Hints:
The protein has about 110 residues and is mainly α. The chain is built from 3 helices and no strands. The model has no long low-confidence stretch (mean pLDDT about 75).
Amino acid sequence: MEMILMSGCVTLFTLAVACLAFGAATRQEREQPPATPQPKVQPSVRPATPRFFAPNVSVRVSTRPQVPIEALLLQIENHVRLEQAAAESFLEYPTTALLHSKTASPLIQ
């Protein structure tokens, strides 16, 4: 009987703690007026202006010629073929030398 009473008390205590935690987590914060007044900016000191959208930003134009998309796709396909061949050769005969060897692809230097 004492065991059942003790487990009931522990269960009620745990439920109370869980309810308090849930209530604290879902409580909406009320806006309180600031306790101290905000300091005023002196007229002789200007605040720093944000420079993210600066009006006098010059845009650099690339002087390099544009590469056609087909050439890039061919290079990527060649790279994928080389990587697949390297993976197949490693699966046939796995060695640490093959595992740590550099790729022959021109995309990775």
